[in-house]
Amino acid sequence: MFAAGGVSSSIGRAFLLVGIIGSLFGALASISSARSRDRTVARLIPRFAILIFAAAVGAFAIMEYAMITRDFSMAYVQKVGSTATPALYNFAAVWSALEGSLLMWVLILAGYTVAVCFWLRKKMDDVLANWAMGVMFIVSMFFFLLSFGPANPFAVGAPGVFDGPGPNPLLQNHILVMFHPPLLYLGYVGVTVPFAFAIGALVTGRVGEGWLLATRRWTLFAWGFLTFGIILGSWWSYEVLGWSGVWAWDPVENASLLPWITATAYIHSVLVQERRGMLRVWNLSLLVSTFSLTILGTFLTRSGVLNSVHAFSESAIGPWLLTFFAVIVLVSIGLIGWRGDRLHAPGSIDSVVSREGAFLINNVLFALFAFVVLLGTVFPLIVEALQSRSITVGEPFFDQLVAPIGLALLTIMAIAPVLPWRKASSELLSTRLFWPAWCGVGALGISVVVGATGFMPLLTFALGGFASGSALRQVVMATRKQGLRGLVGRTNGGMIVHVGVILIAVALAASNSFTHSQELFLKTGTPAYFSGHSFELIKIVEETTDRAISVQALISIDGGKAYAPAITKYTKVGMNIGTPSVKTGILGDIYLTLEPPVKQDSGEAHIKVFIKPLLVWLWIGGFLMALGTLLAAFPGRRRKPTDATSALIGSNDVE
What we know:
Blueprint: H1 2-36, H2 39-42, H3 45-68, H4 75-80, H5 87-92, H6 98-119, H7 127-148, H8 180-190, H9 192-204, H10 210-240, H11 251-276, H12 280-302, H13 318-338, H14 355-387, H15 395-415, H16 426-432, H17 434-449, H18 455-482, H19 490-514, E1 516-523, E2 528-530, E3 533-544, E4 548-557, E5 562-563, E6 566-570, E7 575-579, E8 581-583, E9 588-595, E10 604-613, H20 616-632
Helix pairs in contact: 1-3, 1-7, 3-6, 6-7, 6-8, 7-9, 8-10, 9-10, 9-12, 10-11, 10-20, 11-12, 11-14, 12-13, 14-15, 15-18, 17-18, 18-19, 19-20
């Protein structure tokens, strides 16, 4: 077995080495083709892309095979593998720790590289395309080097080990572990594509709008994957951690939120550049910031500098990531400065009361949002580095500063969709905002009638109604003219995304402001009452498996179905994990946790009950955002499909 494991380790390392070499020669071929216009060299680029993808697939397959077959001769399998781990979580264990997660990063990045190369197959001799592919290969080489060197997943383990602890218990008790990390990585890694084309545009001097049109869908899909990954992460937190919340401003949560904020700002402001040729420097800066923040987020989550339930253990890759981050920022700033004379906008904002004026305000708000989150995330690290003392920036800091920004963004979401380009008259605004304003008034009235109180929640509900009315107005107008096909396209797909965002904002405002909880001591057959609901303990059940001992309290809610909050002790690591049970409803959730200690034969259980108003609408909003992203990715009926690769031949075409 150990001999076989040694062979697997050697083969896995060989695949990574092939990936490094393929990435190096792919970068050299791309840059050489860009400089020499040699078509023979250009034809080599797809071959190197296929080579590194095959190498990444091979390396990942070797690791999965080692995990599935429980090859404990490998150190990584000793670390996260176990004979008792169910097959589903054993498969997902590959990306449950540092080395395996970076291996999945390599796989996804190589997949993007070969996909972009295939997409560019008719333009492989184009200079901008060559430079973009060169950047993709360089980034791929860096991550292959990380996996080959300081984050080697194929190291041979200590002899005589025949079992392991399995993945972190928090990562083996919910199905979302199969989807949340891969989707998040698809978003994280996906922003490499527009970043590569931005660098290519700067190097070649093609800083017009051609490359923007060419990469629009790549950016949108990366943003969509990142969005859905964050939503699923919040769902996982809600269903697994037992605290009844969805977002705690944890530093690792913030690491995924930061590139999402800058990418969202870019998706909005790029419309101004496409339409008016403005905000060129700003859009390039947003793309660079988004990609840079993915690297910074990787450093925060994988270097061991943060203590978090989401973070990986201490590792040696921190200096590598920081150096790469610094190189990206310095090179990008240098290129933007070098091309400064070509980045002057041919247009200007005629009036603040216009579509482009609203997008500019939107950008300022997103920039402020990103600054607040970044400051609160890295400030404790800066203090610790400079003063050797630990401080914590908690939820109150973020809540107090982010809430006003969120309300301002809701206001912009209500007004911007009805604004025309260049300038809007007061008569036009009053006409187009009439029904959205009444939707806001109606939402406020309903909130008061059902008993909502407090300035901030009521303002959120009113602005949510206002913004929803504006988005739905656009959707209704489109479907009246074109039927359901009117929903397809950037504008109307974007409005579906807006509705999803509004639902999330309203759900968060309701659940954060009006959640109430109570601890109950239940005895078998004797119901207890809280918030208009009855809770009756049916029985306590204990289940023992090879990996854990689980104690469940079967509790009937309102005389109906029994729900089963549990406490599970994972015997190999000696860790107790509480698992909540949730009764989900349109108007609110009933969230149950079982509190220790629990005795099976006592006929008693100590539980905690949380009443969470409207929380299910957060998940509905997330799915609407995913749907809207998909609809926005395809041209509407009134927009002619564009050959994206031909759009690379943009304005300011100098080489």
